[in-house]
Amino acid sequence: MENIKNDLFEFEVGTDGIGVLSINQINNPTNLFSTEFITAYIQLAQDAIADKNIKGVIITSARSMFMPGADLRELQNMGNNPKEQFETTMQMHQALRAIETAGKPFVAAINGTAMGGGLELCLTCHHRIVLNNVKIKLGFPEAKVGLLPAGGGNSKAPYLLGIQNALMYLLQGKEVRPAQALKDGLVDDLAESQEELIEKSKAWILANSNPVQPWDNKKYRVPGGDVWSANGVQTLVGAAGNLGKMAHGNYPAQNYIMKVIHDGLPMTIDRALEIEARYFTKLLASKEAKNMIRTGFMELQKAKKGIARPKTEPKYEIKKLGILGAGMMGAGIAYVSAKAGMNVVLKDVTQEGAEKGKAYSKAILDKAISKKRSTPEKAEALLSRIEATTDPAAMKDCDLVIEAVFEDPKLKAIVTAETEAVLGKDKIYASNTSTIPITELAKASSRPDNFIGIHFFSPVEKMPLVEIIVGEKTEAKAIAAAVDYTVAIGKIPIVVNDSRGFYTSRCFGTFVSEGSFMVEEGVPAAMVENVSKAEGMAVGPLAVIDEVTLTLGLHVYESDPTLNKPAFQERSYKMQKDLVENHDRKGKKWGAGFYDYPKGMPKKLWPGLAEKYNSNVDYLDKETVGKRILHRQAIEAFKCLEEGVLNSVVDGDLGSVLGWGFPIFTGGVLSYIDFVGIQTFVAECDDFTKRFGERFTVPDKLRAMSEAGKSIHEY
Amino acid sequence: MEAYIYDAVRSVRGKGNKKGALYGVTPTELSRQVLVALKERNQLDTSKVEDVIFGCVAQVKDQGVNIAKSAAQESNYGDHLCGVTLNRFCGSGLEAMNQAAAYVKSGFSNLMVAGGVESMSRVPMGSDGGGFLMDPLQAIPRNLVPQGISADLIATKYGFSRNDTDLYAVESQKRASEAEADKRFKSRIPITDINGIDILATDENIRPSTTLEGISKLQPSFAMMGSMGGFDAVAIDKYPEIEELDHVHHAANSSSIVDGAGATLIGNKEIGKAIGLTPRFRVRAAAVEGTDPTIMLTGPVPASVKALKQAGMSINDIDLFEVNEAFSAIPMYFMDKLGVDHSIVNVNGGAIAMGHPLGATGCMIAGTLMDELERRDLNTGLITLCIGGGMGIATIIERV
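ok -> structure tokens follow
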């Protein structure tokens, strides 16, 4: 067999009779598992098996990553013809199984991250050796995009890991480092260097001329017992319960992953792969997978790379960042910015306050060190980049200043003027307000063209979204700077236009207010909370109001000068005012809101709610409760689109998923309209308008789209 | 044609664990002894018995391969005797009686033995596998949970507190102890060994010393399963009005795990005349009804309502009830929902005191009820059990 070099890989046979396949997909940013690749690989493997002079094959990578997954660009367009999809998948399995069972050793020399399809390729090999480098990750992330590992991984993982551990890997998309992978049995050996990796691979080939996979070995026992062992039964029963608890039945991929193990593991591997292929086929065509691939991967990746920045603007470099206000938000911003290598000036009114803000970073770092995720040296370097101060003049050399003081326009105006007095004329000033219109705040600025909103979410170090708000006079340079900054700190920017509450706070507000309205109408509070969670919201609306505090809600309403506020805002205000003033229920901070917060015990809904609002289980069915929670948010998001607050459906989707925990399986708050079915959605909102109020009124444009049978993505 | 119950016998019940008295007795042997007792008590012409229908839940190991036929063979009734084993979970023993009655009423059979058996010590609950809780596509979309969670869900939803359910359990023990002391269990037989020596002569599980204070200290049985197994959350997804499950049930206010068997003789009027037997009861109505599988154990109410309607009777026409005490909350829910007084329900105690050998219980409590109706010289009785998967079964009997 001759040596091969093409766009996908190089193959060379050494004098020792061992073929080395180096995957190098030169037209891709990284090696990917794709139809093109696997077809070429199968051909090559068949040729190598047929060649009597070749003793075995080593598969490795010429790139920094071995193969981090499948080509999702290809996958998202596949699966629309289920029969064809199933047959294609089975053809691949048959070919890969023929390679596995041919009696010629194949070794995966894993010299970089191998995930999903990449790891499954390694599982078709008889032996796996991985380079012992902590940067290398191994795992099956398919469930995160609504799929299952369909290259044999779902069926084979339990043979290596045992059922329980396989479920951990597969259901949660758990990623492990090489040492853990060895411990768990996912790989067979570690190598300390590239040379050792190849040496060990060659030695194994020479010592194992006729290898048999565990799933082909009749004497092999699944670690921890098979499906019908006492342990297997207990594991699967517990897994089904916990899966129900975590996913509320909203994610078919997880159910199918478990189903493939339940049905397939007791079977022969060839027939088990058939089960795997059938459920994969079903998932590939599912709304959930398409939504998760689009919003959760494709669009997210684009946003992460800064697709939102004005193309014509040059890159805006931020060497030094100023932060005004060292409260929880300011302190969090300081941490993420210093972590990204920026020098940070963290200013507060008192030195004590500023130091306290800096100590926030130290606390995070101490925890990271204790969990071995950082080192004292790295932590020290990061902290040395944060300067705590009370001096407004310290903002002088900053490229970007982010104001994070209390939500009071007067106070914000004062610090704006104070900062602009020292800040370079061409530098950017941003406010981290969560509700006050940027155009209004920019009135205090002498250079409103460089004034922008950069809205972080709390806790800053954990929340991935940043909402960038463009005021009336904000110019492209400021937008580019804000996007470049967000990308630099590794967060995901969406750019929206000005409005009270912008996009996220405004829609999020409808989620919590709708929840509270139902309580007011007589739906048991527990039902509102539990149904919201069952529908996929991360937290119940009442718990959220308690966290934010009812008093803040009152403050936001009272400080909003807008005349003729929407009726729902007034209703929400009156309800919360009544709770605060007549029942002393101000929020979690005070130990009393919608919930009671007994010390050292889990929170419990305030029994007074049931009495006050005459709660009645039969007032509203749970389906309607769930739809009110989600439909209401979607209506508001559509209004944001119509009013030009949102620039695109995708921004709306990303903002909802990353900003306030709207369930990803729907694709996001606007894709949710398609998920329900646009016509069903409109009909249900019409019904809700009659029954529950004008806030469900369907915008004309949405109605027109529904009548035309359009998808929300055709907006 | 009418179906009559000529007689009912049941074995003593032994604790269903490795220390239990009947651990060493195979379920086939338990079954054989009740069949032999039925024969001896009635000096039965066994050549006239056509079939044995037995309920048994975990039909594997000792209970595998159609245990009814094994029992039929061992009983020496004759080679003509057939056997069929059925599984309607906890309703199996009563289902066997209902099926026998249906055979008789249809004219397909003249005389049959119906009963049930379960050796929970030798074949533990759950040994027979199945997909209910394990197959994710069965369990997850339907919010299926283990029974104990369902029982606690009923208690939470309908407001039966730990104290309420404990009081119920104490009363069950008290009633069973009194019945035992009063020697009311006439149709109960001891289980003996190959020498004829008694292995167990009275129900092993009754605890006359049970006090409210004593059992109030017991840890809830299903709290761990509810939190670690995720099942509380699964139940709450279906019943979102519940903030938190109140895990009231524990070992002493739930049915006990025991071994035991029971058998009844069911036939038409003519066969009785032919072989010289007098019928004791007529089977008036029988019904099953399904419910939501998450709450699972509320079935006795709709099944009983259905049976009453079939019989053209009202709840007030029933003199005594046997509502299986799978968990305290089950008879409590039944009494609440149908407005039945505790004074006529499970008057001699129930499964909390004596135990619940799954496949046998239905037939055993039917026998208890027959004895008591005769003792009190009353006429009508209703037997009902809650059943896994969300089912209920009820049978109405009437003295002849």
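The mean pLDDT of chain A is 96.
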